[in-house]
Amino acid sequence: MAHGIPGLKGTDHIGITVPDLDEAERFFVDILGADPVYTLGAKQSDDDWMRVHIGVDPRTVIREIRFYRLGNGTNFEVFKYDAADGQQPQPRNSDIGGHHVALYVDDMAAAVEYLHAQGIETMGEPTASKQSAEGQHWLYFLSPWGMQFELVSFPGGKAYESSAQVKLWHPARPAE
Fold it and tell me: How far apart are CA 141 and CA 11, in angstroms?
C-alpha cells in the first residue's frame, strides 16, 4: 500500500518572512548567488481571508513577495508583512518551529572563506559529523536579519550511504 500524499514530488519552495526585502535580496542574490525570478504585490483583505488561509491576524498586510531560485532546485518565497498584531522574535533552533536552511557546497573551506570576506557572521568553525553522517562537515551562519543558515559538505558521501537502500537527496547529484 502506498503511503504519503499522492503525487508528491518534493519541495517546491521555502517561505521566509524578513524585516527588509531589499536587504534580503542583497543577501540572497549577492551572497548566496540566487537568481531573482518574480515579484507579487500587496495582499490584504477586508474579511478573515488572511486568518483562514495563512493563519495570521485578518488585518495583516503582505506588502510584497519576492521569489528566488538558488542553484539546483531550491526556490525561496520571501515575504514582507505588516503584521497587525506585532511580530514575534525569531525562534531558536531549540524552540517549537525553530529552523535553519542547509545549503550544500563541495568545498567547505572556500565557502567559509567567502562568507568571512563578505562580512557574514559564522557560528564557530566547521564541524565534522560522526556516526551515520561521518564524512560530512557543517557550519552555521547568519543572515543579516539573524536567520540561521548552514553550509554542509560531503563530497565523498556520508557513512550511512555504504549500506543504505534509500539515500538522502543530494543537490550535486539530483538524478540519484
Answer: 23
Q: Can you tell me which residue has the cell 525569531?
A: 90
- What pLDDT does 1 receive? 63
Distance CA 105, CA 120 (A): 16
Q: Where are the beta strands (DSSP E) in 28-136?
A: 35-40, 61-70, 74-82, 101-104, 122-128
pLDDT tens track of the chain, all 176 residues? Answer: 678 887 877 888 999 999 999 999 999 999 999 999 999 999 988 899 999 999 999 999 999 999 999 988 789 999 999 998 988 888 988 888 999 999 999 999 999 999 999 999 999 999 999 999 999 999 999 999 999 999 999 999 999 999 999 989 888 888 77
Beta carbons within 10 angstroms of residue 76's beta carbon:
19
The answer to whether 95 and 121 are in contact (CB under 8 A) is no
C-alpha to C-alpha distance for 125 and 155, rounded to whole angstroms? 18
Domain spanning 99-176: CATH superfamily = 2,3-Dihydroxybiphenyl 1,2-Dioxygenase, domain 1 (3.10.180.10)
H runs (alpha helix) in 69-148: 108-117
Tell if the pTM clears 0.85, that is, is over it: yes
